[in-house]
C-alpha cells in the first residue's frame, strides 16, 4: 500500500481513528495486554505503551487479547450502539416520523446521532428515516393502494407535502408511479464502509460505497435510464447482502447474484472482461485492452472501468497501473488495496486446499 507504515505514522492514525488502516494494522497496549483496531473508540494509550502489528494472528501470538469494544477478530467493525439500535427501530417502525424529542427520550443526543449517520451513510438520521418511510409509501402504491393510503403510511398530513417528498425521491408524481418500473434501494454494511445497493427483480443495478463522489450522478443516470428508485426491502437485496457477507468473510470468490448494467456495447465488454480477472490477481489497463483485442483502446478501457456502477462484483479494483501502482478508485485507494489484499488471502487459502 503506498503509505508509510512506521510506528509514528501508525500512532498518528490511531489518534485520528483513521479507517484506511482497517485490516492492515492493529495496536497492542502493553499496560493492558489488549490489542485493538486503530479505530477503537477506547481512550488512546500513551505512545510508549503501544506496539503495532500487521495482522491479528501476530498480535495474538505475542500474547495480546482482543479488545471487547472494537472486537478486532470480527469481520465487520462493530457499529456504534446508537446506529445499531436506531436502524432496528426504523426497520420495525418504518412509518414513524422521528423527532429530536424521540431521540432524547431514548437517551441519545440528536446532534451526535445526526453526525454518526452522516459519517456512516452520507445522510442524516432524519434523511435516513424519511427515505425508509417514503419507500414504504411507494410500496403501498405498487401493491395497488391509493395515494391517500400511501400518504397516511408515510405519516404525511399534507397531500402536497407528500407529493413533493415522493417526487424528490423517485422523480415522478405518486399517481403515476405504478406505470413505471420501480427500483429498490437499501444501505448494506461492510467491513470497509456502507454501500448503497439498488436492485429490482432482474438483478443488481448499482452497488457503490457511500463516499463515492460520483454516486449522486450515478443515481441520476440510473433513474433516467431505468426508472424511479425507492428505499425498501427486496428478495434480491437479501441475496446480495448474503453473498457480500460471504465474500467479506473469505467464503465466496464468485458471485451468483444477477447483474443489470446498462451501457454501450464497448462498456459491457469491458465489464465482462473485468469479471474474468481471477481472484487474487490484477491487470493493467493495457493488459485488459490487449485481452479484449483492442490494444489501442487503453483510455477507452479506463473510462469504461470508471463507469462501472457495480463495485466488487464487477471487480474494477483489480485494475492497476502498468507500473504496479494503485490507480484511481472511486471508493478510495485504501479500499482498493484492502480488497486486493483480502482477495490475495482468499486465493492463497484456496490454493492450499
TrEMBL record:
One Pfam assignment: Ada_Zn_binding
Entry note: cofactor: Binds 1 zinc ion per subunit.
Catalytic activity, EC: 2.1.1.63
Gene3D superfamilies from the UniProt entry: DNA Methylphosphotriester Repair Domain, Homeodomain-like, Methylated DNA-protein cysteine methyltransferase domain, Winged helix-like DNA-binding domain superfamily/Winged helix DNA-binding domain
CDD domains listed in its UniProt record: ATase
HTH araC/xylS-type domain location: 104-180
Family classification: Belongs to the MGMT family.
UniProt name for this protein: methylated-DNA--[protein]-cysteine S-methyltransferase
Top-level taxonomy: Bacteria, Pseudomonadati, Pseudomonadota, Alphaproteobacteria, Hyphomicrobiales
Amino acid at each position: 500500500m503506498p503509505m508509510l507504515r512506521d510506528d509514528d505514522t501508525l500512532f498518528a492514525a490511531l489518534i485520528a481513528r483513521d479507517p484506511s488502516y482497517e485490516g492492515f494494522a492493529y495496536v497492542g497496549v502493553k499496560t493492558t495486554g489488549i490489542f485493538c483496531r486503530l479505530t477503537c473508540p477506547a481512550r488512546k494509550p500513551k505512545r510508549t505503551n503501544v506496539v503495532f502489528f500487521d495482522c491479528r494472528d501476530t498480535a495474538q501470538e505475542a500474547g495480546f487479547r482482543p479488545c471487547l469494544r472494537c472486537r478486532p477478530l470480527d469481520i465487520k467493525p462493530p457499529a456504534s450502539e446508537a446506529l445499531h439500535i436506531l436502524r432496528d427501530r426504523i426497520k420495525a417502525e418504518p412509518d414513524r416520523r422521528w423527532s429530536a424529542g424521540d431521540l432524547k427520550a431514548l437517551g441519545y443526543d440528536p446532534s451526535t446521532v445526526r453526525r454518526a449517520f452522516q459519517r456512516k451513510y452520507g445522510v442524516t438520521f432524519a434523511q435516513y428515516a424519511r427515505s425508509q418511510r417514503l419507500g414504504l409509501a411507494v410500496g403501498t402504491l405498487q401493491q395497488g393502494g391509493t395515494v391517500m393510503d400511501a400518504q397516511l403510511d408515510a405519516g404525511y398530513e399534507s397531500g402536497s407535502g407528500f407529493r413533493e417528498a415522493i417526487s424528490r425521491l423517485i422523480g415522478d408524481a405518486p399517481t403515476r408511479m405504478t406505470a413505471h418500473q420501480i427500483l429498490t434501494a437499501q444501505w448494506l454494511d461492510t467491513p470497509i464502509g456502507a454501500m448503497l445497493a439498488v436492485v429490482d427483480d432482474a438483478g443488481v443495478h448499482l452497488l457503490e460505497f457511500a463516499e463515492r463522489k460520483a454516486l449522486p450522478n450515478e443515481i441520476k443516470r440510473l433513474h433516467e435510464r431505468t426508472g424511479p428508485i425507492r428505499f425498501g426491502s427486496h428478495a434480491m437485496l437479501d441475496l446480495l447482502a448474503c453473498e457480500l457477507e460471504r465474500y467479506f468473510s473469505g467464503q465466496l470468490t464468485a458471485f451468483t447474484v444477477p447483474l443489470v448494467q446498462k451501457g454501450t456495447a464497448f462498456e459491457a465488454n469491458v465489464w465482462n472482461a473485468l469479471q474474468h480477472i481471477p481472484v487474487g490477481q490484477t491487470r493493467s489497463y493495457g493488459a485488459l485492452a490487449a485481452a479484449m483485442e483492442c490494444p489501442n483502446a487503453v483510455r477507452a478501457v479506463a473510462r469504461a472501468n470508471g463507469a462501472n456502477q457495480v463495485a466488487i462484483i464487477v471487480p474494477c479494483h483489480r485494475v492497476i497501473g502498468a507500473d504496479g501502482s494503485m490507480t484511481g478508485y472511486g471508493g478510495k485507494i485504501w479500499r482498493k488495496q484492502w480488497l486486493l489484499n483480502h482477495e490475495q488471502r482468499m486465493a492463497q487459502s484456496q490454493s492450499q486446499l
